[in-house]
Each structure stands twice: as C-alpha cells, then as structure tokens.
Amino acid sequence: MRLSVSVSRLFSRRSAPRLRTARCILRSGDDFLMVVHSGVRNFKRTHWGLPGGHIEYGEDPEDAVRRELQEELRIAVPSLGEVGDYRYKGAFHRVYTAVIDRTIEWFDRGELLEVAWHPLEAIEGFAREQRLHAGYELDAIRLLALDTRRTAARF
Asked: Phi/psi at 69 (nearest 5 deg)?
C-alpha cells in the first residue's frame, strides 16, 4: 500500500502543469510593447511575444518578471497588476501588466531580436497571421484593454 501511495504522488506531480514563466504586458497609452525573443527565431516570419521569461527555482513570479524586465530592457516598474495565468506547452505562464510612459532606450540583443510598440489592432493582425509566440498574448491584452475601458467608463 505504501508503494502505491508514493507512485500515485509521483505521477500527480509529473502530470500537474507548473508555472514556468512570468511575462508582462507593458502599456504606454494605447500601445503595447511586444518583443521577439531570440529563442523563437523563425527565419520566414517574426513571432511577437511579451517581455519576461523563466521563473527560477524558488523564485516568486512577480520577482521573476521584475528581474526579467531589468535584464531584457533595463527597466524597473513601480507597480505590477496581475492579469492571469495562461496555459502553453504543458505549463502555466503568469502574465502581469504595468504602465510605463517612457521609451525603451536599450534592450539585450542576446535575448531579444526586436522590440516595438504596437496598437491592439496590429496585435490582432499578428494573431490572424499566426505570428504570436504563444498565442495567449492577444487574449491577455484584450482582457486588459477591456478592463481598462470598463474602469474609464466608471469615472
């Protein structure tokens, strides 16, 4: 009986999806910052994604996204909002959001091939053309844009 319990626990740990990355929707006005990670290189098409990356063992997801923003873009955001968790390739990816009102002056060219601000309509076009890295980026940005519109309508 003891053996079946430990095998059962081992199986459930392996089959449960885990939180793998922390990403951030950076917003400035009506535009969203999208990046092309070097590990997602496709020589025929550019695949846009959200800045952020791997959560280290024992690291808090919010600490991970702050670290990744500092490493990739050399920016520190004063506050983060949590958008939600999205499933991709058997794991969950936590998405945060932050508003910034400045230009991106530097990015790590070893990790990122391209960095650009895009309106929602352009990101919808990337989705139609299957040029989003994971696919959940548009859902997360739409959710954020909808919440922002609701909040603005109340005031």
From this structure: -65, -40
